[in-house]
Amino acid sequence: RKDCLKTIDFICVVGVKCNKCKRLQYRRCKHRTQEERKMGIDVENISLPKFEKEKYLEHGKKTYEMREEVEKIADEVFAKGAKNIVLIGIGGTEFEMMAINYILKKYSTIDTSLYNAADANTLHPRKITKDTLVITASASGDTKEIIEATHWIKETGAYVVAFTKKEGKLGKLV
């Protein structure tokens, strides 16, 4: 819903780290005190120093403004026989896809999967067929793992939709 964009906030779990040694697996860190262990404290807030909330929300608004176009594409793809959705991402894109995957699994009956692009390039998941809608994204349009995945996925006959710059490699490919 459009009014949800006003209340959305960024939520991302990137790891749990120790303040002293900066080790990410804080649960196993030698600096974790006995008191913390007894109380079950093993979480620390981690900030994302380069995260620009306003820019993130602006991109979300622009994406939402494309809703009619996206719904039209989805209707066309499923009218042609798509049976499942596969989300492909890497880095920040993969984290964004996690939220989409969660929402689809919670509110839809469509079979949905999420793959890291590098893993997908190695595995070539059998779930990706001519009856699959693959959704991916690349801010630059030139993310090499996404480009590689898009090449072989298109060869399967799957429908590929990408959120990207039209002038980038990915934009030209899809």
Fill in the keyword field for this structure:
174 residues, alpha/beta, four-stranded parallel beta sheet, 7 helices, 14% strand, globular, disordered N terminus
Plain-language structure description:
A four-stranded parallel β-sheet has the order 2-1-3-4, with helices on both faces. Helix 4 (about 90-105) links the parallel strand 1 and strand 2 (about 110-115). The protein has helices at about 35-40, 55-65, 65-80, 90-105, 115-125, 145-155, 170-174, and strands at about 85-90, 110-115, 130-140, 160-165. The chain has about 170 residues and is of the alpha/beta class. The radius of gyration is 19 Å and the shape is globular. Helix 5 crosses helix 6 (about 145-155). Mean pLDDT is about 80; it is low at about 1-15.
How large is the count of helical segments?
7
Fraction of helical residues: 40-55%
Order of helices and strands: HHHEHEHEHEH
Per DSSP E runs of 2 or more residues, the count of β-strands stands at 4
The secondary structure category is alpha/beta
What is the element layout, followed by pairings?
Layout: H1 34-39, H2 53-65, H3 67-79, E1 84-89, H4 92-107, E2 111-116, H5 117-123, E3 132-138, H6 144-156, E4 159-164, H7 169-173
Parallel strand pairs: 1-2, 1-3, 3-4
Q: What is this entry, summarized?
A:
By secondary structure, the chain is of the alpha/beta class. 42% of the residues lie in helices and 14% in strands. It has a 4-stranded parallel sheet, with helices on both faces.
